[in-house]
Amino acid sequence: MLSVLIFLPLLAAIVVAFSGANAKKVALIASVIEFAYSVCFYVRFTPTGGTQFLHSQSWIPQLGISFKVGMDGISLLLVMLTTFLVPLIITASFRREYKSPGLFYGLIMMMQFALIGVFVSLDAFLFYIFWELALIPIYLICLMWGGQDRLKITLKFFIYTLAGSLLMLVALIYLWMQTPGTHTFDLQAFYSLHLSSGQQSWLFWMLFLAFAIKMPIFPFHTWQPDTYTDAPAPGTMLLSGIMLKMGVYGLLRWLLPVVPQGVEEWGMTAMILSVIGIVYASLIAWSQKDFKRLIAYSSIAHVGLISAGVFSLTMQGMQGSVIQMLVHGINVVGLFFICDMIEQRTGTRQMEQLGGLRTTAPVFSTYFMIIMLASVALPLTNGFVGEFLLINGVFQYNQLLAAFAGLTIILGAGICLTPIVKLLLALRVQRHTISPRLSFPKKPFSFRSSS
Amino acid sequence: MKTLIILTSIGLVGLFSEIFRIRKILLPVVFIGLIAAIATAVGDWNTNVSYYNDMMVVDNYSLAFSITMIATTFLWFIMSSGFFSDDSNNSDHFALIIFALIGATLMTSFNNMLMLFLGIEILSISMYILAGSNKTSLASNESALKYFLMGSFATGFLLFGIALVYGATASFNITQIAAKIGTGDLQSSWMLYTGILMMMIAMAFKVSAAPFHFWAPDVYQGAPTVITSFMSTVVKTAAVAAFFRLFIHTFAGQPHMWHTTLWVISALTIIVGNILAVYQTNVKRMLAYSSISHAGYMLLAILAMNGSAGSSLLFYAIAYSASSLASFAILLTVSGATGNESIESFYGLGKKNPFVAVMVVISVLSLAGIPPTAGFFAKYYIFATAMQNGLTPLVLIAIAGSLIGVLYYFRLIIAIFRDGDNQAVTPAPLFKVVMVVAAVIALALGIVPGLVVGLL
Amino acid sequence: MIQLAWLIPAFPLLGFLITGFGKKFLPKTTGGYIASLMVLASFLISMCLFATFDGKPVTIQLFNWIDSGSLTIPFSFLIDQLSLVMLLIVTGVGFLIHIYSIGYMHDDEAFVRFFSYLNLFIFFMLLLVMGSNYIVLFTGWEGVGLCSYLLIGFWFKNNDYNLAANKAFIMNRIGDLGFLLGIILIYITFGTTSFDAIFPLAGAFASNQPVIIAITLLLFIGAMGKSAQIPLYTWLPDAMAGPTPVSALIHAATMVTAGIYMVIRSNVLYSIAPFTLSIITVVGAATAIFSAAIAITQTDIKKVLAYSTVSPLGFMFVALGVGAYSTALFHVTTHAFFKALLFLAAGSVIHGMSGEQDIRKMGGLKGKLPVTYLVFMIGTLAIIGFPPFAAFFSKDEILAKVWIQNKVAFVTLAITAVLTAIYMLRLFFLTFFGTFRGTHDQEHHLHESPKTMTLPLIVLAILSAVGGFLGIPEVFGGHHLLNNFLEPMLTFPSAFLHEEASHTFEIVLMVVSVVLLLVIIVGTKNRYSGKHVPVAHDSERTSFARWSYHKFYIDELYDFIIVRPLKYLSEVFYKIVDIKIIDGLVNSVNKAVVGSSRTIRFVQSGNVGFYIFAMVFGIIAILFLNLIM
């Protein structure tokens, strides 16, 4: 039953919240069970069967709101991504001691609950509730376990994304009003609306803004680097690995099919913004000194390409974006994990202060390198197929834009090589080192100066 | 009607309890009485009877709001029963609260301008006194005086408006006035126009809408906190409910006379209330400003003028009253422990008392309108209702207001997770009850809004 | 038999996995031998395939890789004449270099890692030449780029090497972008990326159609990156930071010729885009002469060889530009032999000189390193085109073909050939003749290389000596084996002249070049084999020599017009556009709210008089606006 899949993490969240010092383990077990359960759905899924596992129950019938959930291919993939990444994220944080672990891991499970809800909702109101619900745990995670400037940064993040969401809410209410008879929030009803192109234009912008801020697309991205940098590692992983996909998913499920004419009219603008974002964020990432911030900016570039693929409205672009969502989810989580390990063991993320990790930690460095190469989409890594399809899609839409979007091939390489050289290879007179084995030392800092 | 009688009896008991020395049993009597009042009100559901030559009509609308306000008062008594215990006049205060509640009930069920006026005055005069109930505090006295001065000013406008409407329609009866407005059978449409505007100004004052909100922050801050909590819940609900009843039942026939003006007032209230709250570091004053902005959101329901408007207003009133009461209970707890009402006194609350911290999070989320709380659904419901009447621009303004709201409400959440001193904060058991009940309401109505949505 | 072709790349991949995962456990030499055996296995299979090949191309499909709407990309191999020739070169030369490396890298602590990279490189190179569609080709293309990157920066403790590796990777990526866009355009134009499906369709296009020009130009951009043509050539000289066998294998014999392979592979498309061919001619000729002009003053033995690689690559592109595809491949083949030989011999010299690479410090090594001396001489004679060594045939064939189509290019190439002879002989005489100019310590350690190194040298020397017989021109009664072999898969651009160079011309050309070479040999011997020490300081150089020595300041130019502006832009984007403008705009909303809150809170003064005044003002405004207006 799909509802069980949705509510299991919520139940887990409550249990975890009250399990004190064992919270980590309980959360891990719960998330693994959740993953196993989601695999059952994967197995039972019929690839050509459209939306499946439908479950509909009236919720607020007076307002045409129902608890309607179901999964098609895209939903399934994103749900799988979520259930797959959450245990990984929990495992990645295993060696770290976070204060009040019950609350911390409870919030992570809460987050999973909301994320799965977002990906399976077929009712606009339900979708919105889950969408907002995802924001609260991550806000609290960043607020309570974040870095130095968390108070300001997290509030900005919250208000910025909430602004987008509220605009989306207005758009959804408007769509609801357009449905015939006693109004309904059913997604299918939205799909079959006949809206004038004027209506579609402003609906497009309201919805697009919400998704664009979430992803984020240039120029709505300025909350992102600060938040990613400041959030605790699991928070960053959740934000970048899964939460960002909510925005892309929103485009695919709630924007393109609902306001096709609006997309036709304004898609070019969205496309241009996405492509600007690719080049712009890549260039900025290049000059970053903080490794985490570098990944944050490069993530903006990646997302720009994904959204450009979506707006290309081509088969290849769309498929590429779906593939790339999964791939980016995995790679970026890996990168942030690497970043967290380095920070944890050396006490810094500043690339200028690091170096020579390949000498002291060769195995770690190999993994680092592989993930980095995957994130620049070298063939035979997971990134290539998606990126190829995306650029292909954009090319079919507009060749000039594709040339710019393709710059990601060059700029991405630049971004990926900088940390490799600075962190892994370069030797510095005074440097922090990382102990050679992939185990964690008792002391959080291992600091030695070499000749 | 029975509800009103029961309430009046409790009020009289309270008034005479000092004489008959039955102060000790007063509180139980009040509780039992309030429960009885709620029970009778529930019993009257779906009856729709008019009383005293059609002076008042007890319909579902009035019952729903009466029940809300009586229940809020009930919770309020739980919270503040200890507050006046060392005060020789506490029975008087109890009686005054009950009388204010009677006024509030009248304001939701009037069918005659006279009853409206009576209700408003019973409520207001009680509140004037209660605002100054802390006789030793200069601020309390000042607030009572300000409230009285400016309230009288507004009452004048109300009377003036009633007179003009009477002049135009030759009736005090709501039904008759509405009929005449509907058919256009008027002595003078200018008189009606002016009358409606005058009454709107008076009602705007009562709900503390901009630009007639100036009294609210000063009075809210100066009055004893328990009284402030009563004002910002029951009194506000009553005023908005009366405003709604007056304009929807009476003046709906001529929306062009008031709709635009009220639109502007609503927008202004939302903007001013929210913006003013941003710079406040005193939590009580911040809540006062935020109550102004909530009045602005509730005015949207009046402007919506459609089938679900009453229902959305009721939902908003319930959600707002519950969370507001909870936040005042929290404020009382914290300021009781630290001695001041500034935001700093909330620092470190997350560590000091996780229970209160959770309550803060829930009530703040509800006040700010974030899912899955009742506050969110209330906002959504009222926005959706308003948009159905073409008020999308106003809704966008309201959304901007909500965003600003997050800016200051979340300061409380941020504060509780900051590092603070180690002074213990322990809420009294009764406060806990209020907080828990309010939190349950906030979450229950947020998750199952259908409980209230279908009532009206 | 042919169905087993997938084993060819599988063996090196297996080798990579074994050596990659086992680098901790495997004894040093074992790793090297396993890796070499894997390549040998591939070579043997390739030989069998070659022997049994019946002239019909065969596609071997492994699995469907990408399946997206109308875009289906199978992971499959194509065995035809072209890929067979390339297979033999890659696995053959690759095997020799593996053997050589066992000796050369013997003392390196990361010996096994080195072999795992080499095997990985061979794997990707085989994918590149065997792929039956552009995507598999591209996979190999990117893969060899990665291996090149890893191997250039093999000694990663030296940061200059790392930067050289970065440079190579990024420059290649610039080309790759063009290549990828070209592939996408092919897909959009033809609806497929498989060679056997595209080329028949190309016949329907008229000559010089814009879309075909665009495709071929984009693909050529890719080739420019990989094969180090102007303006993307600067990475190759720097790539000499890698161990010498790497330079020989990747940056001389195989990977850098991938661009030429790709153009030959796409010859059907290029033949209907004469415009692109003319651009290729120009770029190739310019690269050839330009790099020769740089090589003539370099003092690092590997740098000279590096530029002497860029220059022949230019030759090959000119050959492609005039539609002489098989001639280009002929030169690729001979070049693979003699350039690998030269690099390995240079490696042997460096090995003997304890790591010294500056030819000013060498001299008189003839007696100390006899085998190396001999093979180096053969290599030098081969590259300058002295008969009957390899390049004599291949280079003259190019010159003859170019003469017919393009006289300017011919003159350029002729001058380049002269320059090539001069700098190669300069290198040769400076290194092996005269007197030893190094330190006493170096002289003491001077030794001939071990058998594992000299054996491959000898084999390559033989190949360099006889490689030219693959394509004996008709004028000598030859059959031009290679040309005939490749014939079935080539098309000739219809826009070009179809005449063959007259036999008289060919003979004149050969005679002239031989005479010229003899003159140069005598001249350079006199100049460089004496006791005379070459110039050591800039001040002693003429202005041309100074420019040449500093590579015409192209690196500095790129740094100035591309790298620095980008860095600057990056900083500006970050510090000004992002933080100040965009984020500033976002924050200004917050500031506006807080600011207005701070301002209008003074209205709330507590003064009842003012409150009532404000209220009255509001009332008047309402009444006035409603009733009067």
Describe the secondary-structure layout:
The complex is a heterotrimer of chains A (451), B (456) and C (629).
Chain A: H1 2-17, H2 23-44, E1 52-60, E2 65-71, H3 73-92, H4 101-120, H5 124-145, H6 150-178, H7 187-191, H8 197-214, H9 223-230, H10 233-255, H11 260-286, H12 291-311, H13 315-346, H14 357-360, H15 362-375, H16 382-397, H17 399-425
Antiparallel strand pairs in A: 1-2
Helix pairs in contact in A: 1-2, 1-4, 2-3, 2-4, 3-4, 3-10, 3-13, 4-5, 4-10, 5-6, 5-10, 6-8, 6-9, 8-10, 8-11, 9-10, 9-12, 10-12, 10-13, 11-12, 11-17, 12-13, 12-16, 12-17, 13-15, 13-16, 15-17, 16-17
Chain B: H1 2-20, H2 23-43, E1 49-51, E2 56-58, H3 60-80, H4 90-109, H5 113-131, H6 138-169, H7 174-183, H8 189-206, H9 215-222, H10 225-250, H11 259-278, H12 283-304, H13 309-338, H14 349-352, H15 354-368, H16 374-388, H17 392-416, H18 429-447, H19 450-453
Antiparallel strand pairs in B: 1-2
Helix pairs in contact in B: 1-2, 1-4, 2-3, 3-4, 3-10, 3-13, 3-18, 4-5, 4-10, 5-6, 5-10, 6-8, 6-9, 8-10, 9-10, 9-12, 10-12, 10-13, 11-12, 11-17, 12-13, 12-16, 12-17, 13-15, 13-16, 13-18, 15-17, 15-18, 16-17, 16-18
Chain C: H1 7-21, H2 28-52, E1 58-68, E2 71-79, H3 81-104, H4 111-130, H5 134-152, H6 159-190, H7 195-202, H8 210-226, H9 235-238, H10 244-253, H11 258-265, H12 267-271, H13 274-295, H14 301-321, H15 325-352, H16 370-384, H17 390-405, H18 407-432, H19 440-445, H20 451-466, H21 481-486, H22 503-528, H23 543-549, H24 554-600, H25 608-628
Antiparallel strand pairs in C: 1-2
Helix pairs in contact in C: 1-2, 1-4, 2-3, 2-4, 3-4, 3-10, 3-15, 3-20, 4-5, 5-6, 5-10, 6-8, 8-11, 8-13, 10-15, 11-15, 13-14, 13-18, 14-15, 14-17, 14-18, 15-16, 15-17, 15-20, 16-18, 16-20, 17-18, 17-22, 18-22
